[in-house]
Amino acid sequence: MRVVFMLLLSVAVSGCATLSKEECLAGNWEEIGFRDGTNGRTSDYLQNHAKACEKSGVRPVQSLWEKGRQRGLPAYCVPAKAYSEGKKGNELRPVCPASQIARLRAANETGLEFHAYTDEINETQYRIDELERKIVAEDSSDKRALLLLERRALARTVRLLELQRARVSSF
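Request: output the structure for the sequence above.
Response:
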């Protein structure tokens, strides 16, 4: 158990760095900025890179990073990306032009709705799985019949949620 905990801790700590040592040393700040722009990173995200590169003795070149980020932002500020972010449960980041916000928010909210339906389907399916274990273990036929009724009702709920999710399955 202790080994598993240490392994998880090391993965968690290494996952915190925004850049590897190699990326810091290579210093392709415009490309890093472009990648960050396509991911909708705000301008203060550069501080995370500075912290990640501190041990390597490398400081980000803000002007190059920002130039790349600005070049990448148009790829983030499109309805398909806003919807995709929502499907992952992510709200739209405040980096897009004001003239596009209404359209992007609508796409993002549709994606968030898809995500919420998916979560609800998964939770309901988990409850169904638990009920099935109880049904198998139940000795009383009356109690088993009640559990089966509950399982059927939850299965209908899943089908309804799937239909509702299908309604928002694309933007």
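DSSP finds eight helices and no strands in the chain.
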